[in-house]
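In full, the data.
>
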Amino acid sequence: METEIILVTEDNLDEAVQKAARLLKNGELVGMPTETVYGLAANAFDKDAVKKIYKAKGRPADNPVIVHISDFVMLRDIAEVNEIALELAKEFWPGPLTLVLNKKPSIYDEITCSLPTVAVRMPSNHISHAVISATDVPIAAPSANLSGKPSSTTAKHVFDDFSGKIPLILDGGPSELGIESTVVSIAGEKPVLLRPGMITLEKLAKIIPDIQLSNSIFEELESEKPVESPGLKYKHYSPNAEVILVKGSLEGFIRYLKTLTHGNICAMCFDKEQENIPIPSISYGDINDHFSQARRLFSALRMVDKLGSSKVYVRVTEDEGDYLAIYNRLLRAASFKVTEVE
């Protein structure tokens, strides 16, 4: 199969969207941009198309897929909507928030991995929103990367992972945010933050003060527990190189790196720190700008493999506030391995 990339502009937007919609209606997969990361899209009402997502990604069969919608009619077609859902949707949709709700029979077990809930969001990216509207069905779309690997934030990343496996990629430029959506479950007695994102705990607490943090944000999910949301159970976001987090000051990070036997290793750090790092290094953003870190994180992790490194030592600072989402992605990439330095 030949994979076509269409650079979407104002002039060809409608043509590109209609081509994607035709493919989706015919049971094919399409790589498309969202404001978070690129998604691997399929018709959510087509079981065989959803199965293609799992096969193309090499995705574990117990890892559910987020369903993307373009309006509230679609939401009510697939999920039981409560008052908290409406409040959160009013505040944050369209945008990078996924809600886990009790599902309706219209949603197949192939999407939810036989769970009674479904994860839903309404993207704000104009291209993905237009594709969903043109297809006129909810769209199942996990991140467009091979399972366990760094998410795709450019069309080139999608092509690198799926060339020859999917017929079309819509190129909408680099992802605006660069990390996946915040995921909140409101299907139980209390709302729970399952996966942090750019809509932070602090922002959510203004709407739902009793929201709780899932333990799976900081520690590995027990093998027998069901996976309520993508990004909870398995090693994610990781390059081929082994990832080791080093938490603490820049001085402590440098001292730690100097103790290592220099070999096929590299480091990830913040802007303006590279000149002090004693091994090859990659910056993943301004230390004081979490948005720049989010936008550059996955590109930096992909760059590690281009360097051919066997290990990457990543400088991390805190595990709360705006940095929590970035820390969570790195923690999973490192299989929860963290070394603390002063």
Q: What stands out?
A: The CA atoms of residues 113 and 150 lie 23 Å apart. The chain has two domains: 4-217, 242-340. The longest strand covers residues 97-102.
